[in-house]
Amino acid sequence: MGGHPGEVRAPEHWLTDVERERAARFRFEADRETFVAAHLLVRLCAAAALGDGADPAALTLLQICDVHGPGHGRPYLEQAPELGVSLSHTRGYVCAAAGPGRVGVDAEHVPPGSLDEALAERVLTPRERAEVTGNDELMRRWTRKEALIKRGELSLDRLDRGGDDLDGRHLLEWTAGPDIRVAVVTDLPARRVPIPHLG
What we know:
InterPro entries: 4-PPantetheinyl_Trfase_dom, 4-PPantetheinyl_Trfase_dom_sf, P-Pant_transferase_sf. The protein is α+β, with helices and mostly antiparallel strands. It has helices at about 15-25, 30-50, 115-125, 125-130, 135-150, and strands at about 1-5, 60-65, 70-75, 85-90, 95-100, 105-110, 170-175, 180-185.
């Protein structure tokens, strides 16, 4: 699922205290709204994946990181820890994915202009760097890698050594508007579904 933050019409009281605290720290209201929308959207997405009338309001999204504590790290649902969930937000766009096994999603804006050489050097292997000539392809590769990171299969400190090998995984990609690239990596085939409207 993905779209403009304003398309996610769900009540903020679904959020945990940790999520509300993190949302309150944003300096700009647009950033806060995007964060909140992504965290609500992942519940809608998970409820759709769970089926059988699963109530998104009853789903508690948790994140635990050994380094940064609660509210950071790979997300999971308290009520369905076996269901993989992932979320991403970038200026003006939010997306979420849910499904059996590990799931990773990322959305990024494609920078205007010529190839961002500094980013390309940091995130691409030498082979990939030789193949990538523009920012659109750079961000396509980057969103794939970020989705793999969110699945726990790649780390930021190994980006220039680890490619976006998808053997044994499934990839779903799309563009949103003129400059947003989205990648979802899952264990099983995935499909894009619209944001549900509550009602």
